[in-house]
Write a structure and sequence with these properties.
The protein is built from 6 helices and no strands. With about 160 residues, it is mainly α. Part of the tripartite ATP-independent periplasmic (TRAP) transport system.
Length: about 160
């Protein structure tokens, strides 16, 4: 059986952790050699950690690997289990929909206000735009996962 994939999110997570590692290493070397440090590393690292978190959560969601308690689900007969799976999917979509909605609103407000980041003076929305984009992508993964579980493609490995 072919395993579900989330290539885009895996690529984003890999790039984020790679860039975080490189700029952190460069910052340590520069600090050791010169006594100073790069100003941009903290701001970029925090941004990339958010990307890494959402991309990793999306991959885990697609592969049905989030922390969960499956005792009730495994104990139920087929019909009530399907209802529970649909309920779980609807709850996930609701939470992710709220994150997407409010993240998009917050990003749009930052565009309107022209806010700049405190460290580098870049437009704040450059950082915030990833929140609604990645949470919307997680909504897609939630739908895919729920569909696969309803069709019996993803088992709850106890």
């Amino acid at each position: 059986m072919k395993r579900p994939d989330a290539r885009l999110e895996r690529l984003l997570a890999t790039l984020a952790i790679l860039i975080i590692s490189l700029i952190s290493l460069a910052n340590v070397v520069v600090r050791y050699l010169t006594g100073g440090s790069f100003a941009f590393t903290e701001e970029f690292s925090v941004f990339l950690l958010v990307v890494l978190t959402f991309a990793g959560a999306s991959v885990a969601l697609r592969h049905h690997r989030h922390i969960r308690i499956g005792l009730l689900e495994r104990a139920l007969p087929a019909a009530p289990r399907r209802v529970l799976i649909l309920f779980q999917g609807a709850c996930g979509l609701t939470v992710l929909g709220l994150i997407t909605w409010f993240g998009a609103r917050m990003t749009w407000q930052e565009v309107q206000w022209g806010s700049l980041s405190p460290g580098l003076g870049l437009p704040q929305w450059w950082y915030l735009a990833w929140l609604p984009l990645l949470s919307a992508l997680m909504m897609l993964r939630q739908v895919q996962q729920t569909w696969d579980r309803l069709r019996g493609r993803l088992e709850d490995d106890a």
